[in-house]
């Protein structure tokens, strides 16, 4: 250890020092030279003080100090009680050092030295303290709590918040299994509660040490708690920051006393002033204390008390208190708050019950305001949980006071958003499984590729399902954030790391200005690898995948097919929504509003008909006809099932319905027997009665795992086969054993009860039940071909859509009074190609036009006129236009009488039903084409694409969770005016992500992942909806859509949303600026590895400039704001061109630009704990300087206080169980000066 020589010498030679033991000891003195070594016995005077054993140069008690032994990790030992030739010997055995031998002149003296040394170590002292605590607890029948005067072992406490992070540390923090506790819990803290009073502290005339040096003071508040009149314990409530070398400190931290924490006017308080001797270990000694009742503090605005100590008076402590007053929000229509004032000590009060006050000037001694302004938090705690609160009082340049309140909260959406995303991705994997199995069993090498696709999708399905189950368990435990210490846990990788809301509320009473700064702090959006393996991140993976796809002939076709499927689903959803609106208008007989919707439907239908190229469809159908194995109907009961058919049969048995998306599942597909073993009954693939007895909707992870193992074994079996003709061979033994339980569960499932759509229509009275728009619009598992079903010709499907739209539009025009309008034509009908080769004909539905040669079945719900006039939309029947002779008109509406038609919806339903089923058919064909293109792609490409998709989903889940949390915080955590809604509608908000990652080592992958994840956020559509019912109490966003077209519905307070009935939809504009600031950033800049970072920052600057241009063009903000934005962009461009090392000015300029446009703020580093804490506190102080006139000379003190005693230190404690930032001294030196933590706030810690 390294000691301070002067301090040790002063302690050993000071006559006032009381030593535990003194006397003569013979010590072995080791003397070493260049070529010799010897040991000499020297008699020295020794002094024992605490765990320090001083030995002097000779046997004179007043001689100089020669050295010291630190009595830690040591044990005294002597062999026997007999005297040795050298004397009475005892040895001091150290754990990692050589033993030291001591000799005394008597056995009694040796025994006294051994006993004193045994009691000298800190370990022994801690043991004695624990015993005393246990005795006190047993006497008072209370749990062992921290003693107020034992500051060395205690931890600082958030003000107005109990010491214990009870609900958080118990579950998440493993390093601190027994946290210190106090009455109440973090969950009990109500941000809207008014405290009894708030108190600030200052001291004067504090005593100095023996060398005349001023102390390092801090104030600790203790609360006396007693039950039933018994003697109570002093328990720590809060503490201030530490100031260096001053006898008259003015502390910035204040303390709040709330009734919910058990405080009352009779509560006894003790304020102890400590002198911190060493900042790293927080070793301190008390200087003095003062006791007072809370009621006295509340009544007296300014109270000066003497500090008492065993050495007498050691100074004074001044308590400045004020009573609360709710801060008025801007635009509330009430008067602004009064100016800051200080109460005069006058015996009488003036009229009105308020004492006279005067403004404090800079020349007067600093005083605090009489009134305390408490911010209104609106619905902040509806979307956030477990608030931690700290408050400060700063002095402005004009002599006024700046009230600052720091709040740290957890987002309640941390587990909600990933669960909904996982539900969407689970449904997507089920869709792809159905697509692959819908191709039927293929022959040759294609069967192996088909099984590889099944295995890959089952693996992803299992991973997504397991992740969702883990998050659900975490949510049930009431945990709302993921610790940085478990960021490499793969079971929780979809959750953002250390997601918190950092809010600073500030008010300058003189300027009558108040404001809120909200920053979302979150770890890097990445997939952490447990073994630390590097892959280059998503940018490198996507670039490699793109270059690899260019070498493949059909790589572009696969992407185009996937885009066409998603476009078909989106158009189908929009057309169904339009039909639902038309039905609602028809029920109201509102003719004038129907034609605009009709024109939109025609336009979207035209787009739907032109998505697919007929040549691509015919190519895929030809592939299916060539390679599908056809099963003869006569042999279906005789031959055993092939392994592929057994596997695909069990896909139906797997119960994979997600409870969250149960309401969104389209009821137009039933899970039929994929390989029927009997005569196939007439089953309509697009009618599934919602009341059928389906299995439970829980995710069976074991069933997925067993089926995945079965597919893997079958793949290995196929690779071992030398002959490719083994189509109907039995399964290998390993596969049979693994798949046997699934076969039993499949046979045990109850049969499905399918009924006709007309029966559903008769049972449901409302129009919504007919189309079931809510169930149709998302369509996570809509329509698929069965393995034995023949794909319907594309021309036939398009003809069905065209005929349905023609009929529907004609009737709508008839209802609107345009009965002479001719029928529209979407395209010219084509004769479909007739294909052969399928032994099993496709199942026909009564309400879908039959294939050529079949007799079409007519809906019984349609009117007689419709039965005569509706043309069959198939290729086998030609439209007859000469039946009416020379009469011109519309054959779809001839014979209808508008005066006799009372139910418009009954006339529209048959055509809408046909259109809906025809769109389902085209979606089935699109999915079949997509699966064929994916099958023809190389196997390695599918595997690489699956791994990239999974990593991208992990990063996107973390990014979207943080973004939705910020949007909900903005909508619910503060007052939203009409100007902000206009900005959302016309432009969309700006989301500024600030990164502090270094492009060296593993953080390079993190930066790459964050770039892609933030870019993906720009494709998400957000829609504001009114909060109704339970959403008013617990507002929860709802996510729908797919990866390519995702929509998030954000509930908004009903009083905030504009009442004109218009829907506000918007997209965000994300920008991401990253500047590394630690020692790895220095290495990266030295090696020239920051070129990609500079290029990315420049691209985001261009995007930010475009956003600012649109912002100014729309006239948002004032003229001064526009000029300030232009100036900031000019400065930012200069800094980007300068390309300076660790140019943090870029981040500061981006922060100011985002704040001027009321954007969303995010700050990230690896774990959002250490570097993020430095950045957030610096931004808060910059805001106080720019907006609230905090003097620049006070910034270092404010920064040090916020970092050592503020909410960022609480965040460190929640994550690792220690109040230490994870920096060492070289890392601190490498940080920019304004990003360095204060001494004593950093050290060795697990990050």
UniProtKB/TrEMBL annotation:
PH domain boundaries: 28-122
Residue numbers spanned by region Disordered: 328-361
Pathway annotation from the record: Signal transduction; phosphatidylinositol signaling pathway
Alphabetical UniProt keywords: Coiled coil, Hydrolase, Lipid metabolism
InterPro entries recorded: C2_dom, C2_domain_sf, INPP4, PH-like_dom_sf, PH_domain
Single annotated GO MF: phosphatidylinositol-3,4-bisphosphate 4-phosphatase activity
SUPFAM superfamilies (UniProt xref): C2 domain (Calcium/lipid-binding domain, CaLB), PH domain-like
Domain of life: Eukaryota
GO cellular component: cytoplasm
Gene3D superfamilies assigned: Pleckstrin-homology domain (PH domain)/Phosphotyrosine-binding domain (PTB)
EC number from the UniProt entry: 3.1.3.66
C2 domain residues: 175-307
Record carries keyword Acetylation: no
Stretches of the chain forming a coiled coil according to its record: 115-142, 561-588
Family that this chain belongs to: Belongs to the inositol 3,4-bisphosphate 4-phosphatase family.
Protein name: phosphatidylinositol-3,4-bisphosphate 4-phosphatase
UniProt organism field: Drosophila willistoni
Gene it is expressed from: Dwil\GK25174
């Amino acid at each position: 250890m390294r000691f301070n020589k002067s301090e040790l010498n002063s302690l050993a030679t000071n006559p006032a020092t009381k030593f535990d033991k003194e006397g003569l000891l013979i010590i072995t003195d080791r003397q070493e030279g260049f070529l010799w070594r010897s040991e000499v016995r020297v008699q020295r005077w020794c002094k024992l003080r605490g765990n320090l054993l001083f030995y002097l140069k000779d046997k004179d008690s007043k001689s100089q100090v020669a050295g010291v032994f630190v009595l830690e990790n040591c044990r005294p030992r002597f062999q026997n009680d007999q005297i040795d030739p050298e004397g009475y010997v005892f040895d001091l055995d150290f754990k990692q050092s050589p033993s030291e031998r001591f000799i005394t002149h008597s056995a009694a003296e040796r025994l006294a030295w051994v006993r004193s040394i045994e009691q000298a170590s800190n370990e022994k002292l801690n043991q004695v303290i624990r015993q005393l605590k246990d005795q006190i607890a047993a006497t008072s029948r209370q749990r062992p709590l921290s003693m107020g005067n034992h500051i060395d072992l205690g931890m600082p406490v958030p003000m107005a918040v109990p010491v214990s992070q009870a609900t958080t540390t118990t579950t998440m923090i493993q390093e601190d299994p027994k946290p210190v506790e106090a009455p109440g819990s973090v969950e009990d803290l109500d941000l809207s509660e008014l405290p009894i009073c708030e108190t600030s502290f200052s001291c004067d005339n504090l005593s100095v040490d023996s060398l005349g040096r001023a102390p390092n003071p801090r104030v600790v508040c203790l609360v006396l708690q007693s039950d039933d009149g018994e003697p109570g314990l002093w328990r720590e409530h809060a503490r201030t920051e530490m100031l260096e070398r001053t006898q008259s400190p003015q502390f910035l931290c204040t303390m709040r006393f709330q009734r919910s924490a058990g405080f009352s006017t009779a509560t006894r308080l003790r304020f102890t002033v400590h002198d911190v001797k060493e900042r790293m270990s927080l070793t301190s000694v008390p200087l003095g204390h003062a006791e007072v009742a809370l009621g006295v503090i509340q009544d007296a605005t300014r109270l000066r008390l003497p500090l008492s100590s065993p050495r007498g008076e050691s100074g004074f402590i001044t308590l400045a208190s004020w009573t609360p007053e709710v801060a008025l929000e801007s635009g509330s229509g009430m008067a602004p708050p009064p100016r800051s004032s200080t109460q005069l000590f006058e015996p009488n009060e003036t009229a009105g019950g308020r004492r006279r006050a005067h403004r404090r000037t800079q020349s007067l001694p600093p005083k605090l305001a009489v009134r305390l302004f408490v911010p209104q938090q609106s619905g902040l705690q509806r979307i956030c949980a477990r608030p931690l609160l700290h408050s400060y009082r700063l002095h402005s340049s004009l002599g006024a006071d700046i009230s600052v309140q720091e709040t740290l909260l957890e987002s309640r959406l941390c587990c909600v958003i990933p669960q909904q995303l996982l539900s969407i991705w689970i449904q997507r994997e089920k869709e792809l499984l159905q697509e692959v199995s819908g191709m039927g069993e293929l022959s040759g090498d294609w069967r192996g590729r088909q099984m590889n696709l099944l295995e890959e999708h089952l693996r992803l399905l299992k991973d997504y399902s397991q992740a969702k189950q883990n998050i659900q368990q975490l949510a049930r435990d009431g945990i709302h954030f993921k610790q940085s210490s478990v960021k490499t846990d793969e079971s929780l990788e979809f959750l953002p790391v250390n997601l918190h809301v950092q809010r600073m509320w500030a008010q300058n009473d003189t300027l009558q200005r108040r404001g809120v700064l909200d920053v979302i702090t979150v770890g890097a959006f990445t997939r952490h690898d447990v073994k630390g393996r590097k892959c280059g991140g998503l940018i490198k993976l996507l670039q490699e995948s793109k270059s690899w796809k260019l070498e493949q002939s059909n790589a572009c076709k696969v992407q185009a097919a996937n885009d066409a499927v998603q476009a078909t689903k989106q158009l189908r959803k929009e057309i169904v929504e339009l039909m639902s609106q038309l039905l609602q208008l028809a029920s109201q007989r509102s003719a004038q509003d129907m034609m605009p919707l009709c024109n939109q439907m025609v336009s979207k239908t035209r787009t739907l008909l032109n998505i697919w190229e007929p040549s691509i469809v015919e190519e895929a159908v030809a592939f299916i006809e060539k390679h599908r194995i056809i099963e003869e109907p006569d042999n279906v009961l005789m031959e055993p099932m092939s392994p592929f058919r057994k596997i695909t049969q069990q896909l139906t048995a797997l119960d994979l319905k997600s409870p969250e998306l149960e309401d969104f599942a389209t009821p137009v597909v039933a899970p039929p027997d994929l390989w029927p073993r009997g005569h196939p009954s007439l089953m309509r693939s697009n009618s599934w009665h919602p009341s059928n007895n389906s299995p439970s909707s829980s995710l069976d992870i074991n069933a997925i795992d067993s089926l995945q193992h079965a597919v893997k074994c079958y793949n290995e079996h196929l690779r071992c086969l030398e002959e490719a003709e083994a189509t109907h061979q039995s399964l290998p033994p390993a596969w049979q054993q693994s798949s046997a339980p699934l076969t039993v569960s499949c046979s045990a499932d109850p049969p499905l009860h399918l009924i006709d759509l007309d029966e559903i229509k008769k049972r449901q009275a409302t129009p919504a039940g007919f189309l079931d728009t809510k169930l149709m619009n998302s369509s996570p598992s809509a329509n698929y071909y069965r393995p034995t079903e023949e794909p319907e010709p594309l021309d036939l499907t398009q003809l069905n859509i065209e005929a349905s739209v023609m009929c529907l539009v004609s009737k709508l025009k008839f209802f609107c009074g345009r009965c002479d309008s001719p029928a529209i034509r979407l395209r010219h009908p084509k004769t479909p190609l007739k294909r052969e080769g399928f032994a099993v004909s496709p199942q026909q539905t009564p309400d879908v036009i039959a294939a050529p040669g079949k007799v079409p079945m007519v809906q019984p719900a349609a009117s007689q006129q419709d039965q005569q006039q509706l043309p069959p939309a198939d290729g086998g029947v030609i439209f007859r236009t000469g039946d009416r002779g020379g009469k011109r008109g519309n054959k779809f509406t001839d014979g209808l009488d508008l005066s006799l038609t009372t139910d418009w919806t009954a006339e529209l339903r048959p055509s809408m039903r046909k259109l809906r089923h025809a769109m389902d058919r085209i979606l089935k064909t699109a999915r079949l084409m997509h699966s064929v293109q994916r099958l023809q792609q190389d196997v390695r490409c599918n595997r690489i694409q699956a791994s990239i998709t999974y990593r991208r989903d992990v990063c996107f889940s973390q990014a979207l969770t943080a973004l939705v949390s910020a949007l909900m915080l903005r909508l619910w955590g503060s007052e939203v005016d009409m100007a902000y809604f206009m900005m959302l509608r016309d432009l969309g908000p700006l989301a500024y992500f600030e990164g502090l990652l270094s492009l060296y080592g593993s953080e390079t992958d993190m930066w790459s992942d964050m770039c892609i994840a933030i870019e993906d956020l720009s494709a998400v559509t957000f829609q504001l909806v009114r909060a109704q019912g339970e959403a008013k109490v617990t507002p929860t966003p709802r996510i729908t859509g797919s990866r390519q077209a995702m929509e998030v519905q954000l509930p908004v307070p009903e009083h905030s949303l504009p009442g004109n009935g218009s829907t506000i939809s918007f997209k965000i504009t994300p920008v991401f600026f990253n500047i590394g600031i630690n020692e790895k950033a220095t290495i990266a800049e030295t090696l020239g590895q920051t070129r990609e970072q500079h290029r990315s920052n420049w691209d985001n600057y261009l995007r930010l400039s475009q956003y600012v241009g649109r912002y100014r063009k729309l006239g948002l903000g004032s003229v001064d704001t526009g000029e300030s934005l232009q100036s900031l962009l000019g400065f930012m461009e200069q800094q980007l061109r300068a390309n300076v090392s660790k140019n943090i000015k870029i981040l500061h300029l981006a922060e100011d630009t985002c704040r001027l446009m009321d954007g969303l703020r995010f700050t990230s580093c690896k774990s959002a704990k250490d570097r993020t804490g430095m950045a957030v506190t610096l931004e808060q102080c910059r805001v106080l300087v720019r907006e609230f006139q905090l003097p620049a000379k006070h910034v270092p003190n404010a920064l040090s206080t916020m970092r050592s005693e503020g909410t960022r230190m609480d965040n460190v404690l929640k994550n690792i169980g220690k109040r230490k930032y994870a920096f060492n001294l070289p890392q601190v030196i490498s940080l920019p000066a304004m990003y360095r933590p204060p001494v004593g706030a950093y050290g060795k810690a697990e990050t």
